[in-house]
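[Automated response] Your request has been received and processed.

Submitted sequence:
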Amino acid sequence: MNEFWIAPSILSADFARLGEEVDNVLKSGADIVHFDVMDNHYVPNLTIGPLVCEALRKHGVTAPIDVHLMVKPVDRIIPDFAKAGASYITFHPEASEHVDRSLQLVKDSGCKAGLVFNPATPLNYLDHVMDKLDMILLMSVNPGFGGQSFIPYVLDKIRECRRRIDTSGRNIRLEIDGGVNAKNIREIAAAGCDTFVAGSAVFGAGQADDPNRYDSIIRALRGELAQART
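Generated structure:
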């Protein structure tokens, strides 16, 4: 399995000081920056676009940026995020008329590609496109809002997805998004995930005026992940 990555979601960050927030969370040991992109159409919320990604790159963020597109249709916005500096672009198969074509568009735009599965979305899309995937993202909440609780039955879906990845022999990251915290991350990792999106659990930690406030929560997450390896 790949090394563990912690991917704080900027959906829960202080947008008035976003560059500083991302700098601090990376300094505290996060591996990758997670973007939750919502369009008030595919999901009932509206968040951020490519200009925010571009602004963080201009600010000096060099860590990978993981863009989760909760938009429909997806093809129009993929090249814009690629140009803005995205590293990974993932999308929901329900939001694409032609999943294979959309994945190839991500690749042709110079990014790594992935599919996202809502809690009740079946994994059968994977039967046909594993050769185009660099990441599979499993939602452990229904998309649209931060701060929701982890849905337990997704653990079985993680195990099935891990089995498919291992059988394929491909280097595909398995990411989880929704309700991840220090109390459940070890169990999630044991089920087979290697990349962990955490929004409110990370950005809600500590005192707002403390630049080191993310150190303890990321240390706690790392400690639990270390236990999952033993």
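Summary generated for your ticket: The chain has one domain: 5-229. Residues 154-168 form the longest helix (15 residues).
If you did not submit this request, please reply to this message.
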